Amino acid sequence: MQRFNGSVAASAIGAAFLSLVSPALAQEAPGEGTTLVMARPTWDTGWFHTEIYRQLIEELGYTVTDTLTLDNPVFYESVAYGDVTLWVDGWFPLHNTYRPMFEQGAEIVGAVAEGGALEGYLVDKATAEELGITSLDDFKRDEVKAAFDRDGDGRADLVACPPGWGCEINIEHHLDAYELRDHVNPIKAGYSASMADAVAAYENGESIFFYTWTPNWTVNELVPGEDVVWIEVPEVNLPEEIAHLSDAATLEGVEGCVDDPCMLGFPANDLVAVANSAFLEENPAVRALLEVVQIPLPDIYAQNAAMNAGDDDIVTQAREWIAEHRELVDGWLETARAAASE
Hints:
By secondary structure, this protein is an alpha/beta fold. It has two domains: about 30-115 and about 270-340, Periplasmic binding protein-like II (D-Maltodextrin-Binding Protein, domain 2); about 120-265, 3-Layer(aba) Sandwich (D-Maltodextrin-Binding Protein, domain 2), CATH 3.40.190.100. It contains 14 helices and 14 strands. A three-stranded antiparallel sheet has the order 5-14-6. Strand 8, helix 7 (about 165-175) and strand 9 (about 185) form a beta-alpha-beta unit. Helix 2 crosses helix 13 (about 315-325) and helix 11 (about 285-290) runs antiparallel to helix 14.
């Protein structure tokens, strides 16, 4: 009579069970056992959609470490080497200057938002109308410089971009191209703090002059066409890396611009993911997810405005956004899981 070995039998039953359920588990959570590192930019207007992507990637079973906040050059170099896996805050063509740093080991994939990321210069509407300001060239006029000279150095103060940001390169190029060095003083301190100061100045009836981009809380706080106006550049003059995109720097239908079409001086950008190529090759579910996810710009505007008003619980905001768009999100995740099983 054969003796029954309980432990052996249990092992056999367990193995048989796992053989049945493992394919289902693998299909549902293709990232199980894989860790990735996400980054976000130093500008906080990109943190909301970063968190949405992070939570979606985790739903695929991946372990995502604490999100790193990085300057552009550090991220693009790190993603090429695989020290960082991805971010969803590439601004192209603005970030074309970083292509040599990452194209050997990383790539652009998908689009958070296509063509909706605008950049340009704005002034408060009241001063623009009073002094007839329509172009950067107007800042060579003494009365215009005086209106925006808050530190008494004889130049108009411009809220610009901190060192290391892609927009800093373009603004610096414009100051030289339009011969504005003696007329405009670019403020390169922390952008959020500088803009908060500008908003406070505007509310006190002072003149303000600033650079901004969309999506950004600034256009909720200072509404183009109501509080401020987009002004034009004297002519389109772009840095060498994106000079071939000059035609895209004049756009039609820009709400709140002094003219239509509006010569903003910056081509409209796609907001995209940039990810390590080797990781994407080994993880088709992540590639597929990045290819299909898109976040509506109005939703980003609304979160940015809430964040600026003090609601900075980005994790909860992202979780609620996913819950509100569950049917759409489930379709994205289904696509990603299907790619993993091919």
